[in-house]
Design goal:
Blueprint (H helix, E strand, L loop, with lengths): L1 H10 L3 H9 L1 H9 L8 H43 L1
């Protein structure tokens, strides 16, 4: 019941908000894998990776819920027109 209410609330947000939320997953993905290149303790790396990767997935799925199927087709059309121009 609670997830349905959250999903309905997210779907009421604008397309622009969905694109912004979806774009926030990129820095979270980058920050989740950045500690793997350092020489810090493995437990710190695992903690940072878990938190940042989880946030990236949260932003990704929330953004897709906000955008919806019509928004995804709108984004595909944008890139298709951009490629042909």
């Amino acid at each position: 019941m609670k997830f349905t209410a959250i999903r309905l609330w997210l779907q009421k947000l604008s397309f622009r908000t969905g694109v912004i939320v979806l774009a926030l997953c990129v820095p979270c993905y980058l920050l989740s894998f950045a500690p793997l290149l350092t020489d810090m303790d493995a437990s710190y790396k695992a903690a940072i990776w878990t938190v940042m990767f989880g946030m990236a997935k949260l932003f990704q799925y929330s953004g897709l819920t906000i955008i919806g199927a019509e928004g995804i087709s709108r984004i595909r059309k944008f890139f298709k027109n951009r490629r042909s121009a």
